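note to self — DONT lose this again. spent like an hour looking for the file last time. sequence + predicted structure for the chain T wanted, 714 res
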Amino acid sequence: MMTADNRTKAARNQGRGDNHGHDDHAGHDDHDGPGTHDGHAGHDGHAGHDGHAGHDGHAGHGDHAAMFRDRFWLTAVLSIPVVIWSQHVQELLGYTAPAVPGADLIAPVLGSIVFLYGGWPFLTGGIQEARARRPGMMLLIAMAITVAYVASLTTSLGLFNQEVWWELTLLIAIMLLGHWVEMRAIGQAQGALAALAEMLPDDADRVAPDGSIETVAIAELTDGDVVLVRPGARIPADGEVVEGTADVDESMITGESTPVPRTVGDRVVAGTVVADASLRVEVTATGEATTLAGIQRMVEEAQASRSRTQVLADRAAALLFYVALGAGAITAVVWILLGEPAFALDRTVTVLIIACPHALGLAIPLVTAISTSKSARSGVLVKDRLALEKVRTVDAVLFDKTGTLTRGEHVVADVAVADGVDFEVVLGLAGAVEADSEHPLARAIHAHAKEQVGTLPAATGFRSMTGRGVEAEVEGTTVAIGGPALLRERGLDEPAELAERTSAWAERGAAVLHVIRDGHIVGAFSLEDEVREVSREAVDQLHAAGVRVVMITGDAQQVADAVGEELDIDEVFAEVLPEDKDAKVAELQARGLTVAMVGDGVNDAPALARADVGIAIGAGTDVAIESAGIVLASDDPRGVVAVRRLSAASYRKMVQNLWWAAGYNVVAIPLAAGVLAPIGFVLPMALGAVLMSTSTIIVALNAQLLRRVQLTAA
């Protein structure tokens, strides 16, 4: 398998915790933390241009664009003398071409070159479609230009009487132009993959065991290496910060434009940019194991996967082939029976040309290429096109609470002090005692105290009391911090002024810790899982779209109800075991709801798989959660709204393209067949080719409007 480094070069060539004793506190037993998912699919399928069997090697749309461009220009140049010396054109425009030696050979010689050189992609493509028994656009074009060529050549040899050399050369030139435009559009859409590869630097500054810095190719990096990343440089591999603090621009992964602070212990991603200071990063993943490589695979898989709309388009394109073939046959028979064999040939070729399902073959793949590549740059990673197509129909979104609507980290929500006790003294004592603990609740108290007080007093003699709390000496006093078990053990009763406050906290499901100084309760802390600031906005936006919002959690009912009330959640499932989450999804589906499940951890996998659409949120570097059809690299729940917006916009463009690509044939085929010939209107063959190519260009331009859709959370 190609490494990320080789992908880069190819793309460039081508275009730890202690036992704190807070275990018994409500609301601290359900963190479905993000798991590690190494099961990258490793799918090497090429991004789809499913309708074109003749465009072998789907990945090389840039090469195809150049090929069609070169053939178009040469064909166009060779077509000029064919048109100028065409007897039909001279009679039509009323001029006489200059007399030159061998004028009679200009059309057959140059026309044959154009047929063989300019028409070669269509001829080979038609053969491939015929061999694969998937007749379509290429086979129709091949048949049309072959009929026109044979008729013209036999006429030049005096065996027939219908010469269409000038129509043939212009026809091939126009179709080459249409394909050139198409290949450019698809190449630009899929260029996001190459752009992602370009985000990796070629070299890295590796820190040697003696502390010296050596520059090495990123292919030489291995897990455990430490690299120095200077300000303004890109991080060469996924890793963990071991020294330094800096803001990191992660927009290429999450879609968020604001740099995020990263310090010792934080994970960083290959390709992101260190903004304002140096970092030393220990490498944890390289090559195909990096987030960037995972995103590339995901985009490739999405563009290669097939949705229901794509299946419909493929069936319509196949049907249109038989419609065109039948219409061509009927046209030929009718006009021959009417005594117009030459006109029958002209009309039959025009029918075959104008009915080419070219635009139909492009209608869905181009929308898919643009939507998946654009979304990847905005932090919305589509693994399955069918999932993206379904999101627009979702009428209930089921959010996992911990780590999705909330941060999964406790923060100090409130502080109360006993009468006669200074507020800052209680904060200082608590912050000092908790400074030596790694427990999440301890870190929350220490951080809050340091933020509010500043410099904290020193604590000595720290000890942890399993299941009860912690204790230390601070400024000559003994300070203990713990929950109800510690109060029961020491026979302490809360002062009335504290009891009223802590009872209200407990009813909300908050973790309540008391501060005891020399045997007296002097204060209490309320700690709650912090609700994300953007969660309310996400819920409001979903409500505005008519979507029901449901929350599921393993937390106690009062904890869940408090979060649900704060966010205006429509329905709350509480005290649900991880293995039972998928049953709740099934319950919602049994009510007739189309459900999207949004979760962040491995425990959510069964529910993600059960849901109509599984959306993994906040996956960070774990971009290959196999149970989810869509992965949001950011932990912002507003990304769910962005996915729904993308789904609706993509589907709208697909339907518009399908209607145009198939619908114009309802009018065009009868005109090409000559139904209006009795009243003097005949659609010229060259104009038929123009109409066919124009329909393709309209479809391509309409798909390009997807680029204007705003996906990032705002």
